[in-house]
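To whoever is on call:

I kicked off a structure prediction for a single chain this morning and the downstream step that reads the tokens threw a length-mismatch warning. I double-checked the sequence; it's 275 residues and nothing unusual in it as far as I can see. Pasting both halves so you can look.
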Amino acid sequence: MENTIATAPTPYPELNAVLHELVESAQVVLGESFVAACLQGSFAVGDFDRHSDVDFIMVVEEELSEDQVLALQIMHERIYNLDCGWAQHLEGSYFSRDVLRNDAQGGTPLWYLDNGSWTLIESGHDNTIVVRWVVRQHGIALAGPDPRTLVDPMPAAALCQEILEGMNNWGNQILADPRIINNRFYQTFAVLHYCRMLHDLHTGFPGSKRAATEWAKANLEPGWTGLIDRSWAGRPIPERSVRQTADPEDLKSTVEFVRYIIEKGQQFSASLETG
């Protein structure tokens, strides 16, 4: 198997150096279990900037052992402490080859590194059809085979259903208790994420937050533009914004925006059923 590490997967040399260290270190830890590493998310779809998360996936032959997880925890803490801001904004999951192949085990927990963290936790965050779709269609190989060979095609109907379920499930939690997004990071993230979910329903494929916010401003009622623009401007320095209480008026508006987008999603779903 070809495991040569890509030398320039992004336009940012300092990020490329971090990614090289990440992949080379993971290969040492995982040994023959290592299958592939690739970028997904905004860097894969090509709509990124210096404030974008660096979304990756690692593919292994089988589920990680306890010893591997322990060694990876040590590795991720070391990489987080590199003298480079990108090192603090890596986000990704470890998939076994079989789990990544299709969505039969979608939602089950994987070992996951959250943006701004150095500790792996168990989470289904990336175990989604959306992530598989992006990996297959746009994944950038960091090491290992072409990402398209690792994922089966994802049906459009299944992608749409997953987006609608995510829209409703998180939205119902927010509507029941807005305190769960009562910090600047999650309040702004909620606005941008709901823009993206509705955008993706209408386009039929996962896109970037940037494309989604521009689409939302062009297609939703103009009264939401200010909230969307403030949320986009709130993206930098998430490690600081996550510790800041959300602006009370923006929090109130965000709750209403979530309600509004859920209604738009339901209307879209109904139009598919009748169309």
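Update from on-call: the warning came from a stale cache, not from the record. Cleared it. Sanity check on the structure: Strands lie at 34-39, 54-60, 90-96, 110-113, 120-123, 140-143.
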